[in-house]
């Protein structure tokens, strides 16, 4: 029939294609951080980026609960995770696209999707850990997205063992 079963990677590819056609970001909302990681991994695989590649990336913000190393590759979508420059729009939750690598995966320029402003992403240190104040931006949890305006997206109910909590 018209509704054939698709793999997660195929579904993510379809969403990425829809976003590209409309020149907008397609965002996946998930119930868990694990689910957001699955979506981001599938999005990166659709761009030809493997786990072996991201294992060489820079540590992302531990508050994002992601363990996928950040690669500063032009065209990659990231979500900023800290309020570092409110005037320019470097705020927690802002989506951006990598524009130019300056020093490996450590220093790079991104363009904020909401304003078009360019900002520098660089490591920060907190609690003895050094990391980039961002994570991949192809998916986020429903809780984290609360109050956000999304132009297009899909919900991935990835809780397999427990009912989703109230409010989902």
Major beta-sheet overview: 5 strands, antiparallel
Report the structural category: alpha+beta
> Cα distance, first to last residue?
30 Å
Order of strands side by side in the largest beta sheet? 5-4-3-2-8
Shape: globular
- What is the number of helices? 3
Overall number of strands = 10
Strand composition percent = 25-35%
Rounded to the nearest angstrom, the radius of gyration is 16 Å
Structure description:
With 168 residues, the protein is of the alpha+beta class. Helix content is 20%, strand content 27%. The protein has three helices and ten strands; from the N terminus they run αβααβββββββββ. The chain has a five-stranded antiparallel sheet, with no helix packed on it. α1 crosses α2 (33-46). 33% of the residues are buried. The mean pLDDT is 90.
């Amino acid at each position: 029939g018209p509704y054939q079963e698709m793999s997660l990677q195929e579904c993510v590819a379809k969403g990425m294609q829809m976003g590209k056609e409309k020149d907008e970001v397609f965002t996946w909302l998930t119930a868990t951080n694990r689910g957001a990681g699955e979506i981001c991994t599938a999005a990166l695989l659709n761009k030809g980026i493997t786990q072996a590649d991201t294992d060489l990336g820079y540590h992302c913000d531990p508050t994002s609960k992601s363990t996928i190393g950040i690669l500063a590759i032009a065209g990659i979508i990231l979500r900023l995770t800290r309020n570092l420059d409110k005037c320019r729009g470097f705020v927690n939750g802002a989506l951006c696209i990598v524009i130019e690598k300056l020093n490996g995966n450590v220093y790079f320029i991104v363009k904020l999707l909401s304003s078009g402003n360019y900002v520098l992403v660089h490591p920060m240190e907190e609690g003895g850990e050094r990391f980039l104040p961002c994570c991949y931006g192809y998916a986020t949890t429903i809780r984290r997205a609360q109050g956000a305006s999304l132009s297009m997206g899909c919900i991935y109910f990835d809780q397999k063992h427990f009912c989703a909590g109230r409010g989902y």
